[in-house]
Design a protein that fits this description.
Radius of gyration: 25 Å
Distance between the termini: 44 Å
Structural class: alpha/beta
Strand content: 25-35%
Shape: globular
């Protein structure tokens, strides 16, 4: 009960609002618990909700029975024994009223979170232009009864909420999959194909949002190195009045052009200022899910942290966020698998954010899907989400399911100066290194002054040597260090090498 109670703000009005009380006569559950859901296998089954204070609550599921009594605020929480994958099963909750669900599956539950590239839908939409590659055929094959989908509505909050806003769980069909996360869908499909268990995907994302919005205030305030997050928030709020006035002027100009039969000028996109509030999305979209046992998280975010003020602290922020989620869930170091941001033409610090993501692999049970080869230099939303889902699934098969598949392209291990060249070794290169093209591209070397120049590079077995006549005594090397780099190093498994720099 102690961990459960932390999820509810101390302000009673917030608790009452979330569950639609004081209609306490009926037992209620949060919207993350509903018919058609997937319950995490091999973990205690956790159910919780609200009812009248002092009311007796009983639950029956798969031949197991548990009961409890609500506390003075009407809260209840109970656990049933864990079980193997299977279903569908009925589940009944008894109080003064009875709730019966008949379509509960037991399998693996994954949370899919981040910003717009995780939100990117399978079907054609206005903001994603044309959906994923071959989206019509993808949807035509999307009748997957044992894949269950839960889409969390965009919600920000000043305090951790007790419930999310959602439309409830649903079985995967062409209709329910159309507007669902494409990365989440492709990832789940591959997990189901390998593990032969039901999978539930909970999509909790919001386009154009920074990592600090997804991190709790507990974590943000615990590290003085993250104080720039709050300074950036103060600055953005100071600029919001100007942005609002400009948007209003743009809307008036568009309306006038339309009235005159002219093509309206485009209105620049600006993020919802509340969606950038530190901890705001954690409070509204993640905190309510924390009592739910899960298998792991897939994450695709970073683009909104590439500006010059945010990129330098992204490594500290991102690793803090991962540890923060694990601390709150209290389920140990569950798999946290993330996507390294793809190539895109930008003046911001995309290379620095990619390096921060690579260094986050120092945390246990993490995995990084490299996408430097499948981006679109002219579109921040590349359409190839099939490969993204596949590369995340490779990490899951290895990290979460112990299948020992090759899950990554070459990852920088060490670089040593040798005879005027930099000799570079990689992990995930046991199968050998490949160059996709006539010659290896993307390497640069620098001397003690750390001024990088383009380098020639050659594969030598499972390593690379890089050199330049302009730097006779190189000390450092880097690869694919640009927002939209030319790079073509892979391993024999067809997975791309991650960008890196050898400067600590």
């Amino acid at each position: 009960m102690r961990r459960f109670s932390k999820l509810f703000p101390s302000i009673c009005a917030v608790t009452l609002c979330v569950f639609g009380l004081p209609a306490w006569a009926n037992v209620t559950l949060p919207s993350s618990l509903a018919d058609h859901m997937v319950i995490q296998r091999d973990r205690p089954v956790h159910l919780w909700g609200m009812a009248e204070p002092g009311e007796a609550i009983a639950v029956d599921f798969r031949g197991n029975h548990a009961s409890t009594v609500t506390d003075a605020l009407g809260r209840w929480s109970l656990y049933l024994p864990p079980g193997e994958a299977g279903g569908p099963f009925p589940l009944t909750i008894h109080g003064k009223n009875t709730i019966t669900w008949n379509d509960i599956l037991v399998g693996d539950v994954w949370i899919a979170s981040g910003q717009s590239n995780m939100e990117f839908m399978i079907a054609q939409t206005t903001w994603s232009n044309s959906g994923v590659f071959d989206w019509k055929n993808v949807l035509a094959a999307a009748n997957v009864p044992n894949l269950r989908l839960l889409q969390i509505h965009k919600t920000y909050a000043m305090y951790p909420m007790a419930d999310v806003v959602s439309s409830g769980w649903s079985a995967c069909t062409p209709a329910t999959a159309a507007n669902f996360s494409a990365v989440g869908y492709f990832f789940a499909q591959e997990i189901m194909a390998h593990e032969h268990v039901p999978v539930g995907i909970i999509e909790a994302d919001w386009g154009g949002t920074p990592a600090e919005a997804w991190t709790s205030l507990d974590a943000l305030s615990a590290d003085a190195g993250l104080m720039p997050v709050f300074a950036a928030r103060a600055q953005s709020m100071d600029q919001e009045v100007t942005r609002t006035l400009q948007t209003q002027a743009d809307e008036r100009a568009a309306a006038l052009a339309k009235a005159q039969g002219k093509t309206p000028p485009p209105i620049p996109w600006h993020p919802d200022p509340q969606s950038w509030a530190p901890a705001g999305l954690f409070n509204g979209m993640i905190a309510p899910l924390i009592p739910l046992p899960i298998r792991g998280v897939i994450w695709y975010q970073g683009e909104s942290n590439t500006d010059a003020s945010r990129a330098p602290i992204y490594q500290k922020l991102f690793t803090s966020m991962i540890q923060d989620w694990r601390t709150h869930w209290a389920q140990g170091n569950f798999p946290f698998l993330f996507v390294q941001i793809a190539s895109f033409k930008s003046d911001d610090e995309w290379a620095e954010v990619r390096e921060a993501q690579r260094k986050a692999l120092s945390l246990p049970n993490t995995g990084m899907a490299v996408t430097i080869d499948i981006g679109n230099p002219d579109d921040v939303h590349p359409k190839d989400k099939q490969d993204v889902g596949h590369r995340l699934a490779l990490w899951a098969l290895d990290v979460a399911y112990g299948e020992h598949v090759e899950d990554s392209g070459p990852l920088f291990r060490q670089a040593v100066p040798e005879d005027g060249k930099m000799h570079i070794w990689f992990d995930h290169a046991e199968s050998g290194l490949d160059v996709h093209g006539k010659q290896l591209e993307g390497f640069e070397v620098a001397g003690a002054d750390k001024k990088f120049v383009p380098a020639q590079a050659q594969v030598q077995g499972d390593s690379v040597v890089a050199f330049s006549a302009a730097v006779p005594n190189p000390k450092y090397v880097r690869y694919a260090w640009a927002s939209n780099p030319a790079c073509n190093l892979f391993n024999h498994d067809g997975l791309p090498a991650s960008p890196f720099t050898s400067i600590p």
